[in-house]
Amino acid sequence: MARERIVSAAEQAADAEQAAGALRPGRIDEYVGQRDLVERVRIAIEAARARSEPMEHVLLHGPPGLGKTTLAHVIAAEMGTRAYVTSGPALTKAADLIGTLTKMQANDVLFIDEIHRLPTAVEEYIYPAMEDFRIDFTVDSGMHSKVVTIGLRPFTLIGATTRAGLLTQALRTRFGISHNLGYYPVDELMTIVARAARLLGMPELPAPTLRAVSERSRGTPRVALRLLRRVRDFSQVRAKGSLASRVVDDALALEGVDALGLDELDRRYMRTLATTYGGGPAGIEAIAASVGEDSQTLEDVVEPFLLQAGFLARTRQGRRLTDAAFRHLGIEPPPREGALYE
Ligand SMILES: Nc1ncnc2c1ncn2[C@@H]1O[C@H](COP(=O)(O)OP(=O)(O)O)[C@@H](O)[C@H]1O
Ligand SMILES: [Mg+2]
User: Fold this and answer.
1) Domain 264-341 coded CATH 1.20.58.1370
2) Which residues line ligand 1 (CB under 6 A)?
């Protein structure tokens, strides 16, 4: 997508800078929320450390911006080892993978982001590496070919993906821990924003301000931190340093972000479905053509949050806008004649 949306969960250049800095939690005690996952990880780390073994392989799946990369680094820190970071699309050749694995020390972490995009030819080397800490590769071909085995030091593979469904069964079953990260409730986002504000050297934020930022963050820490930075700039330049919740409203209204964290593209999608298609049901291709966006973009970056917020329903006949969405747009919902028969 060409345009960078402030409420997009995808990582943007400014986020990477901030992530590299002090905002990303370094230790497990600083990692907010995802309680079940954190508990599983704590137990696995403690057990592994007691046995002087690497932690189990972990698969983290869920929407972008929810803390998968952060947790991989946290696990390495808690294990007292290093994290090697790569990604599915970056590992184009088996040699790239082998090079990294042979460099790693005992109990280090290999983090593979977007692991669903790992090339098949590389994936095959991962299986014995994960299971038996060895790599088998064939030298020469035809009659003189032979298999050479390289032993590896024990390591932990942490895979992250937004599309767990695209993983092969063979790969998925090789992870000891597989966990789906969910969206964060507002109170947890408030904790994350308060901590980030402290680290950014901002004065303590009043609770209504923390709430105002968090409620617009679509359940996503990455979005919350980005909104916080915009609010900080606006406060400094346009509001004499005030951090009242009204400043959040003004700062984010300027960005086209409304009280629920919807932006112009979300509203355009909803208005199109409301007015052009009478609330639906309508097919995604038709909606995309009317909105003037590509359908994959709408499916990836607009619909998940509208579904989660209860503004959109996906039915067999197509997308349908809910009454709550009509109310949010300030448009009278149409009478639902067929409602009884749905
Ligand atoms: N549980 C959490 N507690 C505190 N901050 C978090 C948490 N999860 C994510 N963050 C913040 O949000 C940002 C995005 O998280 P990241 O790990 O990059 O997400 P993902 O890899 O899932 O896309 C991080 O830089 C971090 O500062
Ligand atoms: Mg990530």
Assistant:
1) no
2) 19, 23-25, 31-34, 64-70, 160, 192, 221-222, 225
What letter represents residue 208's amino acid?
P
Atom of ligand 1 nearest to the CA of 34: 1
Residue ranges of the domains in the chain?
Answer: 34-180, 186-254, 264-341
235 sits in which H/E element: helix 221-238
Cα 114 to Cα 62, 111, 164: the distances in Å are: 11, 10, 10
Q: How many residues does the chain have?
A: 342
264 is written with which tokens? 């112009």
Report CA(64)–ligand 1 centroid distance (Å): 9
Q: Who contacts 143 (Cβ-Cβ below 8 Å, separation ≥6)?
A: none
Q: Taking the domain 34-180, which CATH number applies?
A: 3.40.50.300
Q: Judge if pTM exceeds 0.90.
A: no
Q: Which atom of ligand 1 is nearest to the CA of 62?
A: 22
Closest ligand 1 atom, residue 72 Cα = 17
E strand residue ranges, the chain: 58-61, 83-87, 109-113, 134-139, 146-151, 156-161, 177-180, 312-315, 318-321
Q: What is the pLDDT of residue 288?
A: 97
What is the CATH code of the structural domain delimited by 186-254?
A: 1.10.8.60
Residue whose CA lies nearest to ligand 1 atom number 9: 67
pLDDT at 12 exceeding the cut of 50: yes
Tokens of 157: 């593979």
- 298-326 pLDDT, tens digit per residue, is 988 899 889 989 999 999 999 999 999 99
What's the pLDDT at 2? 47
